[in-house]
Amino acid sequence: MLGQQFYHETMRNIIVAFGTLFNNIHLVRKNNSGVITQTMKVPLAYGPKQKWLTRLDADADLASKVAITLPRLGFEIQNLAYDPSRKLNRVQKFRKVKSATDKSNKLDHQYMPVPYNLDIELYAMAKQSDDALQIVEQILPYFQPDYTLTINDMADMGIKRDVPIVLNSVNYEDSYRGDYGDRRAIIYTLGFTSKFYLYGPVTSSKVIKTVQVDQYTDIQTAAPKREQRYTVTPNPATSDADDDFGFSETTSFFQDAKDFDLSTGTDKTSTNDWWIFYGFWWFFLLVRFKTLYILKTLILV
């Protein structure tokens, strides 16, 4: 069962959507008169804050031509866990009939997804306290305590889903490296939980356009003869699942003692009838042989 290749990019889409929430945060700096002297967009990147601190330790004065800039935002995955409180019925399925332009005439179906929680931490690092507060105040009001995103959860099946991003915690850290006056790194750590679903493989099967039922007058062990056939087909026969169509119903009556062969799709003489025929034949031979044996014995006597 395991080993069937499929990849729906669900977790990748969740991470991209999470980063998109925070990729347009700006901050301003003013002089003592309240005049804006600088406006900048806060850069965002995926990566742990330890990497940033290591980069700052290597170039504390930020004098290199290629260096980390503050303030900045970063995020990383912390944990992935199953969520039993959102479990769905595992035997239900999503179904999608392929469009009329697709000549494969297939029906795609997929079992219900599995709920998972993805824990993500967002880091806001700044050198000045006012810069860090500007960043945090542009984020917190949107989470009460969650913010809902709508994403293309399963593009192959045409499924869109609302994914809540829940704010769990906000931590403050004022880090120093070296002497007291050398460098300061103010870090706000925001913990989030994304509640999403993981999907299994998509399976394709042919669309059923004919239903046929043969009706008998007794149970199978009694070797009954078929009496009636009931057939249902869509009308028109070329209709798709999204069309407005009806049904054509046909009822046929039989007395030919035949059965429908699923392998060939044709009516054949029932296997039970052949066994009955051969049974009578062997019984006739046995009775005749026994009669001849009795006559021969009487003649000899």
In short:
This protein has 301 residues and is α+β, with helices and mostly antiparallel strands.
The name of the CATH architecture of the largest domain is 2-Layer Sandwich
Class per helix and strand makeup: alpha+beta
Number of strands: 16
CA radius of gyration is: 38 Å
Broad shape: rod-shaped
Topology:
Blueprint (H helix, E strand, L loop, with lengths): L9 H12 L4 E5 L5 E6 L2 E3 L2 H10 L13 E11 L10 E5 L8 E6 L2 E13 L2 H9 L8 E9 L4 E18 L7 E15 L4 E4 L4 E6 L9 E10 L10 E8 L4 E4 L4 E4 L1 H30 L1
Parallel strand pairs: 3-4
Antiparallel strand pairs: 1-2, 4-7, 5-6, 6-11, 7-10, 8-9, 9-10, 12-13, 13-14, 15-16
Q: Could you please describe the fold and organization of this structure?
A:
The chain is α+β, with helices and mostly antiparallel strands. It is 20% helix and 42% strand. The protein has two domains: 10-81 and 116-196, 2-Layer Sandwich (STM4215-like); 206-300, no CATH class. It contains four helices and 16 strands. The strands form five sheets. The chain has a six-stranded mixed beta sheet with strand order 3-4-7-10-9-8. The termini are far apart.
